[in-house]
Every structure is written in structure tokens, then in C-alpha cells.
Design goal:
A five-stranded antiparallel β-sheet has the order 4-3-11-10-9, with helices on both faces. It has a two-stranded antiparallel ribbon with strand order 1-2. Helices cover 56% and strands 14% of the residues. Among the domains are: 38 residues; 254 residues, DD-peptidase/beta-lactamase superfamily (Beta-lactamase, 3-Layer(aba) Sandwich). The protein is elongated and about 125 Å long. The chain has eleven helices and eleven strands. A hairpin with a 5-residue loop joins β1 and β2. The chain is an alpha+beta fold and 421 residues long. α8 crosses α9.
Length: 421
């Protein structure tokens, strides 16, 4: 006899309950997932969009960098090509390369010299800005006074003529006319100038002895510089001697003619006497010994207008160029520079420039002959200057000397006014 199983099974009941619980939990998870699924999708889509934007920007930046890199590579290639070309060029001409290097070195040296010169100019400008304040009204007044004196204040020139009267007798007649006058002034340091008739040509008289002496001393200096052996025979050996004889006598200025025959002089002493006493015997013997070739070369090199054509003529501006050259020679390291200064500052004719600036050393050379009464000199002021005055006031005398000194005093005032604070 079969027995019916009971309706209640504990195991089944537990499984059923467990299944129900799991189903409920799954349902809950599903509901939560469904609830969150919409916002997660949106976030995903937004992130994907941002990623695409960032990717595009990065790609554009990368492309820009690649372009820049390509340009740099091209520039490097060009430079390397240029470098190789230069290497080939200079490798094929090593001597030219060395020559170019030497030229570069010379140019750098010149550039450095110019830079130093510019620096000096800046220093001068700075100095002038501190101390150089010209009183223009005072300068104008000095110039006006000076030009009035030059145009109308000079003594009249005396002209003597001989006429025959009706009886056949000769009568001396004196007429007057205004003299010819030329003036040139130049400040050596800064180049300030004043001139009056400075291009008018005059017979230079003994003024030419200064540039002649300079030309000989410059030639001797150059000869010594070329010769390492001082005992070697030289053309300009001023230690050689000249013996005076009466047949060498010359008219005009000088002291050699007053000495007995047989008196000896070295050629350097002849140059000295030519400068200190304007000695004509010394001048003549120096020309015979050395010629005037160096003198002519000097006149041409200085760019003189009248003197280079005829050594016995000059303009006031010619004289200014000569004096500036003498000043530079005196300041040079020549063994004859001090000699030149000493001889010219001991000139025996000191009634014009030296007398107009008492207390100041003056290296001057005068000239006095028919149709000529001149003086030219370097005034060794704190700020040195050159001045040349040429006239045909050959009568000389105290009136003429006083007039010329008055002109030169005004020139000195003009010069000093440039440097007044």
C-alpha cells in the first residue's frame, strides 16, 4: 500500500524562498542599472566628444611643430651647405684666406683706432660743454673792431716816384695808398679760424726759410729712421762743416758776413742761423748743399696754393698750413724737434707777434724785403694757435709795428674769448 508524500518539503521551501530573494535582488539591481544607465551613457558620449576635440587640437599642434621642425631642418641644411661651400672656397685658396684674415685684422685695428678717436671726440665735446660757452656778442664786437682796423686803420704806404719837370730836373714825388694786408688765424686744438684776404698772393721774403728748414729736418729724420747703422754715410749729415769765404757773402740779413774768412759752421748751425737771424749766407749754402727738392715736395704735400707753384710766394693760408706742420714736427719724437722749437723761439726779430702776446712763448719767422713786411708764428698758449700777417708795409718803423701789434692783440683777444667760462 502506497503512502502519499506530505505536501510540505523543507528543502524545497528553502530553495523557493532563496530563489524569491535572488529574484527580488536581481530585479532591484536591474532597476538601479536602468535608472543609472541614461546618465552614464550621456557621460560617455560627452567624454568621447571631449576626446575628439582634444585629439584634433593636439593633432593641429603636432602638425604646426612638424612644420616648424621641417623649416629648421631646411635652415640647418642651408647653413651646412653654405659652410661646406666656404670650406671649399678657402681650402682652394689658403693664401687668400690668410690674406683676408690679415685684412680683417688691419680693419679691426683701424676700427679700434677710430673708436678711440670717437671716444676722444666725445671727451672733447663733454669738456667743451662744461667750459666752452662763447660770448657771441663779444666775439662779434672783436671781429668788427678787427676788420675795421684791417680795412681802414693801417698806416698809408709811401710811394716814391721821380718825375722830370719842365726844366729837365728830376723831382722826387711821394704819393700814398692803402697797403695790402692779409691775415690768418687758426686754433690748433679745435680748429677755430679767422681770415682776411687769406688767398691773396704775396712775395714771402724770408718767411720761406721756416718751411725750407722744416723740409730739411724732416728729410734727416726720415733718413735716420731708415738707417739702423748711425755711422753709415748719410745725405743729411748736419755734422759736416762749411767754411765761410768772402765770395759767399750775401746782401741782406745775417751775421755770417760779419765773421772773418775761415770761420767754420756745421750745417745744423747754418739751419739755426737761418731761423734765428734769417741769415742769407746760411740759406744760400743750404740750398747749394741739399737743393730745394724736399721744400717743393713739402709745399705740394701740404696743399699750399701759391707756394707749391713758386717757393718765393705765399698766401696767409699757406703760412697757416706751414705753421701747423711745424707745430706737429715740434711735438714729434724727431731728434730735431727740440732744436726747431729752440731756434724759432729765439728769433731776433720780435717786434710783431712776440711783442703782441708778452709772456707767451712764440715760435716765429719774419720776412722783410721790398714789397714785404710779414710775420708768422705759433703762439704756445694753453690752447696754442697759429697766426700769419702779410703786408707790403716795407717801410717798417714804429708806426707800422704798432699797427701790426694792435691787429695781433685783437686776434689774441678773439682766441682767448673762445675759452672763457
Amino acid at each position: 500500500m502506497n503512502r502519499r508524500r506530505p505536501l510540505y518539503n523543507p528543502t524545497f521551501t528553502v530553495l523557493t524562498a532563496l530563489f524569491a530573494i535572488l529574484f527580488t535582488a536581481a530585479l532591484a539591481v536591474a532597476l538601479v542599472f536602468v535608472a543609472r544607465y541614461g546618465s552614464a551613457t550621456e557621460a560617455y558620449l560627452a567624454a568621447e566628444s571631449d576626446a575628439e576635440y582634444i585629439s584634433e587640437s593636439a593633432q593641429a599642434e603636432i602638425e604646426g611643430l612638424q612644420d616648424k621642425l621641417a623649416a629648421l631642418k631646411h635652415e640647418v641644411e642651408s647653413l651646412e651647405s653654405e659652410r661646406e661651400q666656404l670650406i671649399r672656397t678657402f681650402a682652394d685658396s689658403d693664401e687668400r684666406y690668410k690674406m683676408l684674415l690679415e685684412q680683417v685684422a688691419e680693419l679691426e685695428s683701424e676700427l679700434a683706432a677710430k673708436q678711440r678717436e670717437i671716444a676722444r671726440l666725445h671727451d672733447d665735446i663733454a669738456k667743451l660743454e662744461r667750459v666752452y660757452k662763447v660770448d657771441i656778442n663779444a666775439q662779434f664786437a672783436i671781429i668788427e673792431e678787427l676788420e675795421n682796423l684791417l680795412r681802414s686803420g693801417a698806416p698809408m704806404k709811401q710811394l716814391k716816384t721821380v718825375e722830370t719837370d719842365e726844366a729837365g730836373e728830376e723831382i722826387e714825388k711821394i704819393t700814398e695808398e692803402y697797403p695790402r694786408i692779409a691775415l690768418y688765424y687758426q686754433d690748433i686744438t679745435h680748429g677755430y679760424t679767422y681770415s682776411y684776404n687769406d688767398s691773396e698772393v704775396f712775395y714771402s721774403a724770408s718767411c720761406l726759410k721756416a718751411p725750407f728748414a722744416l723740409s730739411l729736418l724732416q728729410a734727416a729724420t726720415a733718413e735716420l729712421a731708415r738707417s739702423a747703422d748711425e755711422s753709415a754715410e748719410r745725405v743729411y749729415n748736419f755734422d759736416q762743416t762749411y767754411t765761410y769765404v768772402s765770395s759767399d757773402a750775401q746782401k741782406g740779413s745775417g751775421i755770417i758776413v760779419k765773421q772773418p774768412e775761415g770761420t767754420e759752421y756745421t750745417y745744423l748751425q747754418l739751419i739755426e742761423l737761418m731761423l734765428t737771424h734769417s741769415d742769407n749766407v746760411a740759406f744760400d749754402q743750404l740750398k747749394k748743399k741739399y737743393s730745394t727738392a724736399e721744400f717743393r715736395a713739402l709745399a705740394s704735400r701740404l696743399g699750399t696754393s701759391a707756394m707749391r707753384k713758386d717757393l718765393s710766394t705765399m698766401t696767409a693760408s699757406d703760412g697757416g698750413k706751414v705753421l701747423t706742420e711745424i707745430y706737429e714736427f715740434i711735438r714729434s719724437d724727431s731728434p730735431f724737434s727740440q732744436f726747431m722749437y729752440d731756434a724759432m723761439t729765439r728769433s731776433n726779430h720780435r717786434v710783431m707777434i712776440p711783442a703782441a702776446v708778452p709772456g707767451k712763448p712764440v715760435a716765429n719767422k719774419y720776412g722783410w724785403d721790398i714789397g714785404a713786411y710779414h710775420d708768422m708764428g705759433i703762439v704756445f698758449d694753453k690752447n696754442p694757435y697759429v697766426v700769419v700777417i702779410l703786408t707790403d708795409l716795407d717801410q717798417g718803423g714804429s708806426e707800422v709795428d704798432t699797427y701790426i701789434r694792435n691787429v695781433l692783440k685783437l686776434v689774441n683777444r678773439l682766441h682767448e674769448n673762445f675759452y672763457k667760462n
